[in-house]
């Protein structure tokens, strides 16, 4: 069966520090991968998606970047965190088919102080 | 662009009460519609979906019908249980560039009391 791992679960980081959140998927190959963020009082917003190794599409301009160094690994990064980067980050994958279901990780609660 | 407007919460009900969570959408074309649920301490998981007009998605006693004329996908359950306490997200799919991107509503927190 397929599983998705996302870590850490919670993170408190000072302003200006770097960030690296990692997500890995097991039990499938060539998944589409996604990073979503939920900021306070807002819905889940798509940040990045990837349809293959090294292929990253950004949905919104921001202080973050994403990379996909391996087929089932998706990393969210920042060189210098801002207060506004605080939020709940969710990694997800799907099979790349039309109307397919997305499977989500358990999320990372990031607080920038 | 595409968007989803979802009933603001929180919603608090007693066990066995009837539940409705309203969801309307704006989209070009005919997207698929989804309800995802997030139980406390867990990630989101698909509750139900509908892929075309007049389709009804159902799961665990929950139902939602894809209404193109009113651009709605309201979630209903006839008799809620304490175990239904969770955050519910309405979403539509926006297929672009080979990916099925989801556009979410803000989520509705449901608390069911015994």
Describe the structure.
The complex is a heterodimer of chains A (113) and B (114). With 113 residues, chain A is an all-beta fold. Chain A has no helices and eleven strands. In chain A, the strands form two sheets. In chain A, strands 2, 4, 5, 6, 9, 10 and 11 form a seven-stranded mixed beta sheet that branches. A four-stranded antiparallel beta sheet of chain A has the order 1-3-8-7, with no helix packed on it. In chain B, the strands form three sheets. In chain B, strands 2, 5, 6, 10, 11 and 12 form a six-stranded mixed beta sheet that branches. In chain B, strands 3-9-8-7 form a four-stranded antiparallel beta sheet, with no helix packed on it. The N and C termini of chain B lie far apart (41 Å). Chain B contains no helices and twelve strands. Chain B has 114 residues and is an all-beta fold. The radius of gyration of chain B is 14 Å and the shape is globular. Chain B has strands at 3-6, 11-14, 19-21, 23-26, 33-38, 44-50, 56-59, 62-65, 75-77, 86-96, 99-104, 108-113. At the A-B interface, β4, β5, β9 and β10 of A face β6, β10 and β11 of B.
Short description:
Chain A has 113 residues and is an all-beta fold. Helices cover 0% and strands 57% of the residues of chain A. In chain A, strands 2, 4, 5, 6, 9, 10 and 11 form a seven-stranded mixed β-sheet that branches.
């Amino acid at each position: 069966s397929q599983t998705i791992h996302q870590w850490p679960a919670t993170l408190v980081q000072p302003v200006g520090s770097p960030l690296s959140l990692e997500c890995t998927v097991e039990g499938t190959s060539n998944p589409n991968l996604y990073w979503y963020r939920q900021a306070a009082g807002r819905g889940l917003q798509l940040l990045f998606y990837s349809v293959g190794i090294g292929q990253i599409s950004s949905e919104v301009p921001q202080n973050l970047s994403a990379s996909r160094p391996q087929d089932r690994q998706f990393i969210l990064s920042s060189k210098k965190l801002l207060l506004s980067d605080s939020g709940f980050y969710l990694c997800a994958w799907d099979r790349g088919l039309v109307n397919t279901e997305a499977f989500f990780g358990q999320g990372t609660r990031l607080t920038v102080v | 662009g595409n968007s989803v407007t979802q009933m603001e919460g929180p919603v608090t009900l007693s066990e066995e009460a009837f539940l409705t969570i309203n969801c309307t959408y704006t989209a070009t074309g005919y997207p698929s519609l989804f309800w995802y649920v997030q139980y406390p301490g867990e990630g989101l998981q698909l509750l139900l979906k509908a892929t075309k007009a007049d389709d009804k998605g159902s799961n665990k006693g929950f139902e939602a019908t894809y209404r193109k004329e009113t651009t709605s996908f309201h979630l209903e359950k006839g008799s809620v249980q304490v175990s239904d306490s969770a955050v519910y997200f309405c979403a539509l799919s926006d297929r672009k560039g080979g990916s099925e991107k989801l556009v979410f509503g803000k989520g509705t927190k449901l608390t069911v009391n015994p």
